[in-house]
Design brief:
Layout: H1 33-40
Amino acid sequence: MPIEDIFELAKVDVPETKEGEFLVRNIWMSVEPYMGGQMKSR
């Protein structure tokens, strides 16, 4: 089971994008129970 101790809030420097690249800013992330089984099988 996920517990708070295994997560970390980190601030990092974001490099400038280069030609042909783009930057995506995620403001929401959902981790569904289904994903646990998918991660274990890898």
